[in-house]
Amino acid sequence: MSEPRRRRRSGPSPRDREATLGQIPQLPWKQPRNPYAPLKVISDDQVEAIHRASLRVLSELGIELMSAEGRALFREAGAEVDEATGIVRLDGALVEQLISTAPSQFTLTPRNPEKSLRIGGDSIAFGMVAGPPSVHDCVNGRRSGNMEDFDNFTRVAHHFNAIHIIGNQVCAPVELPANSRHLDTYNANITLSDLCYHVSAIGAGRAIDGIAMQAIARGLSLEEIAASPGVTTIISVNSPRKFDDTMADGLIAMSRHGQPPVVTPFTLMGAMTPVTLAAGLTQQNAEALFGIALSQLANPGSPVMYGAYTSNVDMRSGAPAFGTPENTKANIASGQLARRYSLPYRASPTSASNIVDAQAAYETQMALWSCTLGHANLHYHAAGWMEGGLCASFEKLVLDVEMLQHMIAFLDPIEINDDTLAFEAMRDVPTGGHFFGSPHTMERYETAFYQPMLSDWQNHENWELSGAKTATQRATGIWQQALRDYDQPTMDPAIREELDAYMAKRKEQIGTGEP
Q: How far apart are CA 178 and CA 234, in angstroms?
């Protein structure tokens, strides 16, 4: 391939040097913080109106709770429980009392304590996609999820510094037994990476397995990890107004072991809620508060997160839509509600696009901005999500990491002092001159600006000479290089043996019918 004939920069940038060394340019690993004031799309009075309407939903309509243990906890707390229908109704005072015990912040600690995550306040954590049954890349096409791809997604997630937490089953390894494959995915999360990860809470058993394996990786007992959380999970609500028994039991198990569940109603306006945004937010809020209250009944003071996933459907087909103006407003308003209760907040920057194209970019970017402006602490599904969550994409992961790095750089505060104001540099350059050779520029040009890993800033002629690749085509090369450059974190052989023994024992137990 011919070399470009001219360059636009007068000197080598960090991107150029890394390209020469064969490295993918990326920002160093850090947990970003949001220094800006949260955006408000509804007034404080409107927040209170949604709060009051939510309490009315809980007291007059109630929530169906299929878990017998959960119903018993609510009954003992003074809620009205109808065993014939499973409907639980609780008054506003009880709701306020229960959620008041939940902490406003907590720390998640993986096996590498240097990658601990503060959840709450102005802290942000970007997470991988979770749950898709399918996988796609531009080399091998679309296929069912499998363990090889799961491992490779985990390796790439570990390699890219903009990803802070691995989602539960980045893709489902469908070739493995459904009742025990969570053990294999937990094992991959722990051995191929040293990041925090999400566990499955489809029942108490899978949640406890994830907690126990993280405890082994950290050299802790279950009692010790309860005081120092290391995993989290997503508790989905069967909107409208229904908690199934496996989700509720998983939530109870997580809370009793001191691990934070993220209670997330999946409220699609027009399908699972009325079509108005006010009603969607009200139902979401009622369902989230119900789950948060249950977590505090299971273990008062245990960490929990307010999760939001309110968007709309295409009223012509019923298909879910993401990154829409309604979804964007819902993400920001949900942040206002989470802050009303002093709870950490989860939202998601997702898209409904079926391929890695302009739609995938603008819908994800729209939602990413709303998560950031709404002060979400956990951006779930932030890397690799495609097809409305039905497919995990390697190229989309790279596109998303580029957008996440842009956001991380945006969140760095502007530094203003005598040095950055650069009055002397302005005085030294004559009118109509330029600053390319200025000492002020030469001292800073290598680090002055964010350098992307995916964007191509060449002019059209040099872009053609370089192969005329689209961003998606360049993304293919980047994820392939990330796999080549991946460096597996070390693990004590004794811990490796203990994990293997735990997995073997649990697979045997599950095979004989134990939960």
A: 18
CATH code for the domain of 335:
3.20.20.480
| Per-residue pLDDT reduced to its tens digit, 233-251 | 999 999 999 999 999 999 9
Which pTM was predicted? Answer: 0.94
Q: How many structural domains are present in the chain?
A: 1
* 8 Å CB contact between 388 and 131: no
**Sign of the alpha-carbon dihedral angle for 366, 395, 408, 31:** positive
Contact between 315 and 270 under an 8 Å Cβ cutoff? The reply is yes
Helix (H) or strand (E) run with residue 74 in it: helix 68-77
Q: Give per-residue pLDDT as tens, 325-366.
A: 999 999 999 999 999 999 999 999 999 999 999 999 999 999
Cβ partners under 8 Å of residue 396, min gap 6:
356, 360, 383, 384, 385, 386, 475
Helix axes 68-77, 245-256, angle to 10 degrees: 60
Q: What is the three-state SS of 203-225? A: CHHHHHHHHHHHHHHHCCCHHHH
**Helix/strand/coil for 402:** helix
Tell me the C-alpha distance between 355 and 394, whole Å: 11
Q: Tokens standing for 423?
A: 């009055």
Judge whether 311 lies within some domain.
Answer: yes
CB burial readout 58-90, b (16+ within 10 A) else e: bbeebbbbbbeebbebbeebebebeeeebbbbb
pLDDT at 12: 38
Residue 508 lies in a domain: no
* DSSP labels, 50-70: HHHHHHHIIIII-EEE--HHH
Torsion of CA 369, 373, 377, 382, to 10 degrees: 0
Q: Which two tokens stand for residue 248?
A: 């509720």
User: Could you tell me if residue 92 is inside a domain?
Assistant: no
**C-alpha gyration radius of the chain:** 24
pLDDT tens track for 293-321: 999 999 999 999 999 999 999 989 989 99
Structure tokens at 512: 């004989």
User: Per-residue pLDDT averaged across 256-263, rounded?
Assistant: 98
Is the separation of the CB atoms in 192 and 154 below 8 Å?
Answer: yes
Name the residue among 154, 123, 166, 145 with its Cα closest to residue 33.
123
Helix (H) or strand (E) holding 82: strand 80-82
* Residues of the domain holding 225: 99-409
- Whether pLDDT at 20 is above 90: no
- Read off the DSSP letter of residue 273: B
Q: In whole angstroms, what is the distance from residue 105 CA to residue 305 CA?
A: 9
Starting at the edge strand found earlier in the chain, the sheet holding 80-82 runs: 80-82, 87-89, 63-65, 242-243
pLDDT tens sequence across 385-404: 999 999 999 999 999 999 99
Return d(Cα 268, Cα 414) in angstroms, integer: 38
C-alpha torsion sign, points 204, 344, 220, 190: positive
| Residue 58 belongs to a domain | no
